[in-house]
Structures are given as C-alpha cells and as structure tokens.
User: Fold this.
Amino acid sequence: MCTGNICRSPLTQWLLIERLSMGELIKVGSAGTGAMAGQDAPDEIWDVAAGFGLKRTAKHSARQLTAEMITSADLVISATKEHRAQVARLDPKSASYSFTLNQFARLISHQSASFVPLTSDPLLALRDVVAEVARNRGAFAPPADGASDDVSDPYRLSVSDYQRAGEQISESVDTIVKELRASLQGGSAQ
Assistant:
C-alpha cells in the first residue's frame, strides 16, 4: 500500500505474486491512501517491472484503501511509516499485522532459525509467521536511519528514482519470499 497505488504498491504486489508462486493460495492486492481510482501505473514503473522480468499483461487500476481491505487482510505491507500510521487510524487492531515493506523484510530476516509454524497448512503457517514477526517487533533495534524502513516515492521524478525504488522493493520482496518459503519448509533461511 502506498499513496496513489500506481508506483510502489503495484510493483510490490506484482513481485510478490511472481516470486511467491503460490497461485490462488495467497491473495495479494494493493491500494493507495490517496488513490485516484482506476488510474493506470505510469510507464516508468511498467519499465522497472519489465526489468525484473514481469510482463505487462493488463492495465493496472488504482484502488483506494478501505477499512474493509485492512480488516480482511492477514498482513498489511505499506511503503512508508506514515502509510502504516494511516492504516492504524483506519483500523487500530491492524497494528499487530501491519509493517512497512522494508521493516517486514528486516524483521523476518531476524526470525529465529528454530521458529517452525504450528501447522502444515500453508495459509495458517503464513499467519503464524506474521504473528511471530509481530511478537518480535521490539526485539530488534530499528535502523539508525529511520527513513530506511520507507520506500522512496519515485512518482514524477527521474527514471533513476523509479529504478532506485524498484531495487528497494525487489530486495525486500526477495528477503520476504526467501524467509516465507523457509518457514513453510520448517525453519528460517538463516
């Protein structure tokens, strides 16, 4: 989730779907806190997506974030701490399962190698992972540069800004996917 749902959040969504490769088991969506509903992603973000091997198969259609989206989610990933705060204002209970993308990647990478989900059901196991990451949220010091938990907004900036945001997103998605897969196979990827 980001501001307009046309740059950071759709790229995160596309990469998670592609790299998790879990079909319909996990529903991954995106929305924006100030989206102009129906707006397509700019060509620059499609170009970044193509650089990661993603094919433009359909027009993206921006969606406005709703409280219902938040309450129906098992995990809410935002581009920035401010977006996460907006999620918490819409649904205070979401604080336990909402993170910035970079924060979730950082925290899940510190997950104990001894952590094993309590179930073999993949969806329930993923919920266990999110709960474990949330329980350990305060166990690790945040980065000295608090902004590093945020993904920079490239909208209407240079091509290099789009590429930089894309690299941040891709790196965090890779970490998350690696750790989620390891958890589903019985332990942390460490």
